[in-house]
Amino acid sequence: MKLKKFIPALAAAIKDAGFDQTSKDVEDIAVPKIMSGADLIVNACEGSGKSTALVIGIIQQLKQAIEEAPRAIIIVPTKEKAYELEDQFKMLGKETDLRTFVVFDKGNLLYQKEMIYEGLDILIGTPTRIDELFSATGIPMVKVKILAFDDAEQILTPKYQPFVYRLVYALPKAQKILMANSWSERFEELEERALTNPVVIELTEEDGDEN
Fold first, then answer.
1. Rounded to two decimals, what is the model's pTM?
2. Dihedral sign, CA of 127, 129, 135, 140?
3. CATH class for the domain made up of 8-204
4. CB distance 129 to 139 below 8 Å
């Protein structure tokens, strides 16, 4: 992974983590697309580096803390996944002042709402809790520029699909990113209804193919 294209704080963290020497195909292909601001669907097997690519791309886009309202919302299927992703942001964003916060089902809704309004840059949460906060005006949406779904095949399901579309339609100008371990026909429907000229990247374990 070439470090010259990244802000110095991110480049240093990537080097410390050894990702400059061990980057994977998904990271090399997807990170520039995330940085470009294009809508994006990435379909690659588990452990291929999708989450790392997402974290690197978002840190590079946001760069530093600004104001109070979140600028990136990332939806993940479970509380455990949310904290794993936050750990990656802490590792790769350690030289920046970017602020993350995790929300999850059964957590104290009022406390989570208060923490969001105290100020953050990146909000990570489970679908049900993000939906509850969104419905209760618990998330200021005016500054959101990135809406991402990690393990998207577990989120774009009949249970959560109505919420996904409400959120996507509420953020027409935001970049939409889907990271998935397997392809779903629902991605095609979302692409037709709510994405803008999305880049679709599909990779197997053997090689990569970009559409």
1. 0.94
2. negative
3. alpha beta
4. no
